[in-house]
């Protein structure tokens, strides 16, 4: 059995993230011919009985073309123009998708998101419910970041992360990222012609991260590093991920059939992660951080313990009870994220102290776990 086969044989639900380079032409605007090829592949997957969710870029490019603005986004300083172009482009983009899918009698539905939409648990669950209900109705959900209203503080940053979040939300089995390159290489192939394609990635380590390059296409803002970050989200959540060239013939079917094209990231198969912990890990913006000592780190990572005040050596940021924090070990390595039971001011008073000392100074209300194990997500390696 080939490396990929056992991770692909039982998949039922797929998220396909289509990058700007696969959707837009060099002249600007949408590349209808390549979009048609991709949608044909999506239909073939659906004929196999697979459920498909799309995460699409391309709205801004479509809007700039429609408004006859010939500059690329990176050359436009006025953010309001880019937001206006995105608003117009969403209409154009969805019209093309509707027309391309309607040939097979397939309906589509649009979901526009910002990162802020995933930070509230109720909203997060509502988004997940909408995706699942669209699939039950045999409607293809098409997800995009709401660039027309998003600001930096609430943006996903690029659609690779959005694709990964969509895969987590949809409880998908596989994320396919269609890009302008064949896959991930040992080095940037644009700078080194001897760079080798990495077909199968068993573990995302520092060597893999160091191999990630920078953005390449004129409309896309996500480079290989953003794809590796997306892979981290998927792998941790038990979801496989593939990167491939969005202009390759039969690319989707070839991936599903296990052919050695592009790069495949092996999903974590041990210890299924609960939905709420996926939300803590990736859906919520962190408001601050704490650093814990070696003993506390061992208790958290190896013994499944909660985080107690006595093990905390440092806090950063201002936060309230119920906010999500990053947890660092000695050496500034991110090992976990979790929901705090105390504010930053309260932790400042009790950090480094045991329960007996806390009880005598501040009373029973200040005793207890800073982050309970049920609300703590521990990573296999730094995320």
Short description:
The chain is of the alpha/beta class and 383 residues long.
The CATH topology of the largest domain comes to Carbamate kinase
The computed structural class is alpha/beta
Q: Assign the CATH architecture of the largest domain.
A: 3-Layer(aba) Sandwich
**Helix fraction by DSSP (H/I, runs of at least 4):** 25-40%
CATH class of the largest domain: Alpha Beta
Described by the principal axes of the CA atoms, the overall outline is globular
User: Looking across the biggest beta sheet, what order are the strands in?
Assistant: 3-4-2-1-5-7-8-6
Characterize the largest beta sheet: strand count, sense, and whether it forms a barrel.
8 strands, mixed
Structure report:
The chain has 383 residues and is of the alpha/beta class. It folds into two domains: 5-276, Acetylglutamate kinase-like (Carbamate kinase), CATH 3.40.1160.10; 286-378, Roll (Archaeosine Trna-guanine Transglycosylase, Chain: A, domain 4), CATH 2.30.130.10. Helices cover 38% and strands 18% of the residues. It contains 15 helices and 13 strands. It has helices at residues 5-8, 20-23, 32-47, 59-66, 79-102, 116-119, 121-136, 159-169, 206-211, 224-236, 251-256, 275-283, 294-303, 344-350, 355-362, and strands at 13-18, 51-56, 107-113, 139-145, 174-179, 200-201, 240-245, 263-265, 288-292, 312-316, 324-329, 333-339, 376-378. The strands form two sheets. It has an eight-stranded mixed sheet with strand order 3-4-2-1-5-7-8-6, with helices on both faces. The protein has a five-stranded mixed sheet with strand order 10-9-11-12-13, with helices on both faces. A hairpin with a 3-residue loop joins strand 11 (324-329) and strand 12 (333-339). Helix 4 packs across helix 5. It is globular and about 70 Å long. It starts with a helix and ends in a 5-residue tail after the last strand.
């Amino acid at each position: 059995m080939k490396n990929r086969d056992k991770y692909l044989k039982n998949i039922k639900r797929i998220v396909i993230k289509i990058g700007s380079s696969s959707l837009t032409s060099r002249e600007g605007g949408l590349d209808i011919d390549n979009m048609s090829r991709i949608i044909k592949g999506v239909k073939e997957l659906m004929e196999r009985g697979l459920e498909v969710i799309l995460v699409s870029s391309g709205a801004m490019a479509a809007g700039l073309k429609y408004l006859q603005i010939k500059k690329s986004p990176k050359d436009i300083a006025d953010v309001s123009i880019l937001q206006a172009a995105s608003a117009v482009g969403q209409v154009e983009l969805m019209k093309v998708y509707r027309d391309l899918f309607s040939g097979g009698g397939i309906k589509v539905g649009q979901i526009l998101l910002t990162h802020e939409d995933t930070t509230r648990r109720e909203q997060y669950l509502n988004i997940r419910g909408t995706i699942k209900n669209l699939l039950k109705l045999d409607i293809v959900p098409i997800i995009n970041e709401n660039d027309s209203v998003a600001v930096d503080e609430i943006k996903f940053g690029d659609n690779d992360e959005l694709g990964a979040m969509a895969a987590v939300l949809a409880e998908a089995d596989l994320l396919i990222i269609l890009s302008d390159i064949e896959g991930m290489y040992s080095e940037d192939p644009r700078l080194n012609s001897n760079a080798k394609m990495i077909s199968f990635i068993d573990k995302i380590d520092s060597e893999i991260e160091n191999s990630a390059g920078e953005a390449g296409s004129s409309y896309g803002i996500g480079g290989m590093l953003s794809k590796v970050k997306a892979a981290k989200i998927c792998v941790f959540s038990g979801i496989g991920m593939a990167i491939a060239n969005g202009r390759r013939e039969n690319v989707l079917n070839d991936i599903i059939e296990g052919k050695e094209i592009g790069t495949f990231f092996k999903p974590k198969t041990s210890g299924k992660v609960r939905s709420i912990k996926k939300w803590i890990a990736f859906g919520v913006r962190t408001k601050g951080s704490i650093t814990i000592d070696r003993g506390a780190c061992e208790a958290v990572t190896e013994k499944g313990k909660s985080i107690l005040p006595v093990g905390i050596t440092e806090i950063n940021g201002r936060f309230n009870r119920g906010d999500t924090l990053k947890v660092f070990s000695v050496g500034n390595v991110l090992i976990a994220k979790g929901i705090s039971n105390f504010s930053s001011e309260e932790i400042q008073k009790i950090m480094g102290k045991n329960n007996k000392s806390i009880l005598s100074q501040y009373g029973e209300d200040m005793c207890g776990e800073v982050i309970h194990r049920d609300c703590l997500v521990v990573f296999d390696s730094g995320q």
